[in-house]
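Quick one: L,D-TPase catalytic domain-containing protein from Bradyrhizobium canariense, structure tokens please.
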Amino acid sequence: MINLETLKTYSRAVAFGAVAVTAIAFAGPAKAAPVQLFPFFQPLPPIAAPQPYQPYQATPYRAAPSEEQDAVETPARFRRQTVSYATREAPGTIIIDTPNTYLYLVLGNGQAMRYGIGVGRDGFTWSGTQSVTKKAEWPDWTPPPEMIARQPYLPRHMAGGPGNPLGARAMYLGGTIYRIHGTNAPDTIGKHVSSGCIRLTNDDVADLYSRVNVGTKVIVLPMTERRAELGAATR
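--- reply ---
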């Protein structure tokens, strides 16, 4: 027969063991890592704080060197000056002395303002009488078809500015492709280098531009044998 006291002791041991197992069962999951229901979703990064508005800063445009940026010493005889000049043309008339590379603006009373110029190279000189039909400040440049045919690498259009071959000012001559204009290459003054246009330094063309109006008569003398200078500087 089983002793009653032994049975009671056994029952208490079993009850204690059950309580211990239950405590361990509840304590174990509390220490385990939480179960991820959707492990394939990654948490989103934190939202950055809003930044103050900064306007777009474009890279500054760098033009080609201009006359002011790359100064060239103009020979004394090509500097703008008042000279004695005998002519029957009315004051305000422009006379282009092609062979001597001078432009004269008739002042009257036997005087003229003389400017050094660059003219057409061999095969591109011309002569005749025209008039100023248009004036433009910092003009755009659209090379004529004739020039594009000879130099296909030229741009089809160039906006006005210091790097533009027409320089600071332009005066258009009649219905021709020729102009009196400035230049970003002042070292070409006094030379036969253009495709027929008459070029002055930017400073000189701005001065001439301020003195003439649309309708001004322009006489271009032919390229003949080089002759003595007609204009003598006044003192």
